[in-house]
Amino acid sequence: MLVTGQQVKPFLYHQQNFLRNHAVGYFAGSFSRDPDLAPAVLECCRTYGEISNLELLAAAVNFTQTELTLRSVLDRLPHVSDAVVIRYYNNMIVNADINVLIHMAPGIRKVTNMAPGCIPKIKRRIDLFSWPTNKLMNELLAFCHRNKDRNLGEMDYTYGKDIVKTLQTRDDLPLDTILTILTDEKYRDYEELYMIMLAGGLKMTVVVPVLIDNLRCNEEMLAEESINALTRIGNDVVVRGIQRCFFNEHWDFRFAAASLLGNIKSQGSEQAFLELLPRETDLSVQTMLAYEWCNLLSDQCVSPIMELIHSGYDSDFANLEESLYCACMIMGIRLPVMEEWEKQITKRKKEPSDELLRIMNLIMQDDPVMWPPGDNMVNTGRPPGGKGKKPK
Predict the structure, then answer these.
(1) Of 266, 310, 330, 381, which shows the fewest CB atoms inside 10 Å?
(2) Rounded to whole angstroms, how far apart are CA atoms 71 and 67?
(3) What is the pLDDT of residues 56-68, one digit of tens each?
(4) What's the CA gap between 187 and 181, in Å, rounded?
């Protein structure tokens, strides 16, 4: 039996931050658009502080923002001094629903601690929203053509994503164009990546076999975008497609497939874990399946994962004691060993160290929202020297 999202929500407010993190991962992994999530994150930040809730803030960047939550972020932003938190708040603003941004844009411009790239990106999203669908699609394809010889670090990849985000709101999309690009061998460049995003956002079940096939390739970006799209489609057609071929695939495929199954909250995923974990022989993939089964929050996972913990698992990939502890707490299951697990987790989990925050700050330096764009809005995605390879 699976728990429901409503049963998970109270744990977003739990005093133990690792339980809050597990709860937010349940929603973030499946790209939930539940409007209750962003208010919960902001309430936790008020109660426990932002530094204790960095994982929640990271997830909230992609949660649904209402005018009320966006106003709360704008009110809080001038009082924040930590660079990582400022970045998360800026990205929550930039990624807000376009109708909210249009209404609140004048007030956003006046807020302290707005990053240099934030206002131009909001303006760009508002401008794109005014374009007709055919102009958006033509511009997306033209943008891909203009950048066909560039790597990711030499182009504004987020510009295409902004167009895709706008296209996903349209009822007059040329679906045949999306299907053609995803199924024709001659399209193997940036247009393929953007059409994968678009198909995922539109929940196009018809392209599931193509997306699953992409998990067999060695192109990291293609596989990553396909995993995201399959997660967004998120139905049992995806689960059955993964399950049918699972044991005939290479290690990377099976590892990625485990995360997909954990993020698709369905009885089909629960059944897939029940069948796949006992048959898997690679210890690392076993560990990943167990970890993701905990994220599914299925009470069927307890006995098989306890067996794996006792027999030994790959601790380089996950801490199954912590994952199972969190899952059991949320599901209302008590195991005798959980008291000892709680002591170990609590001892290990402390506030992020200054070194960790420094590393996170360095990682986020490539965030295009955080630095001013150049004169050409199309080709200003990352600072000079940024890395990243185009698909082949």
Answers:
(1) 310
(2) 6
(3) 999 999 999 999 9
(4) 6
